[in-house]
Design brief:
Layout (H helix, E strand, L loop, with lengths): L2 E6 L9 H11 L14 E5 L13 H13 L3 E6 L11 H10 L4 H4 L3 E3 L8 E5 L7 E5 H5 L2 E7 L1 E3 L3 E3 L1 H6 L5 H8 L5 E2 L9 H5 L5 E4 L2 E4 L9 H5 L5 E2 L6 H16 L6 E7 L21 E5 L2 H14 L17 H5 L6 H9 L7 E5 L1
Parallel strand pairs: 1-16, 2-3, 2-7, 3-4, 7-14
Antiparallel strand pairs: 1-15, 5-6, 8-9, 10-13, 11-12, 14-15
One iron/sulfur cluster binds next to helix 8.
Amino acid sequence: MASQVYYFDFRVTTKDTNFKKFGRLLEAVNLKGIVQRKKKRPLIAIKLHFGEKGNTSFIRPIYVRQVVDRLWEYGGRPFITDANTVYVGTRAEAVSHLTTAIQNGFAFAVVNAPLVIADGLRGTAEVAVEIHQELFQSVYIGEAVVEAEALVSLAHFKLHELSGFGGAIKNVGMGCASRHGKLAQHSNIAPKINQKKCTGCGDCIAHCAQEAINLEAEKAVIDPAECVGCAECILTCPYGNIEIQWNESIPVFMKKMVEYTYGVLKDKPERAVFLNFVTQVSPACDCYGHNDMPIVGDLGVLASRDIVALDQASADLVNQSPGHPGSCLKDTAPGSDKFRDIYPQIDWEIQLDYAEKLGLGSRAYELVKI
Ligand code: SF4
Ligand code: SF4
């Protein structure tokens, strides 16, 4: 059965403004319905990517404020959240992550809700959620997301070098995973220590709770048999000598991401709302400290209770649109597959197919213009 995806474009007037349209979108998707009023303090996680330092294509904080204000009004206790990254950038632990978020405009004074890093100070505040699927028995999700009663995913829809595009499925599945969970999606083997650069200082040994790192000939060595892939050591090395082995095949990576999405949403049926901002559609992830020219114009904001239908509709809108001349697209014709144009080796439909197979939603949708 086709799921409804609500949508507004950016043709506005003085009477019908962007925020008025956005408000109607939130009503159409029944944002109010996720707030459990029977609970005294229903905690609502608003999952967002704050953008790496230097990136400018993430969602504008003033839109986030619109969502927050409504959730307060409905009796919810909203907080804005993301989990730490597994690579060492400006969002790998909570202090840098919160600093980056505030520098990118997500201060309390702007968004009217506290920021909470879902997997804690160093990414170890996680919950193992049992899912018993093809690739994972359990997935590791940031504690704050699991403990929240409801979830609002606000995703910036853009292209992605591993999944073709990054939309709601990626925002939820990868974004809510703890550092441990992110490493499990990207790699199936232990991190690797750069032996040439290792000084033998032993910091990583002291931090590995599994005692999986030993000093051999004054160099640290990871025992893969003992390593559980928690990713703590990557952050610990003061010289950045411990590297992720990005070895997971792309189809398996996408399926893992979908299984994580399943784990995040498992205890929140009927209490999750998904929005995609199809704006500044950059050719790569917001995890980079830059963003190349958008490949299409700003197409609008989409919302649905069906995460699969939402991502499918967003991808279709991008592909149906003419591409920007001067962008990195080779073929700018309306109807061309923009994702395969830039990432020809990636079958972006795998994530949608597998998500539909797991019962997360439907690829069939009805686009309802607000
Ligand atoms: S990933 Fe975790 S378990 Fe593995 S070596 Fe590093 S700290 Fe130890
Ligand atoms: S913390 Fe880094 S430099 Fe020190 S022993 Fe571990 S890998 Fe080597």
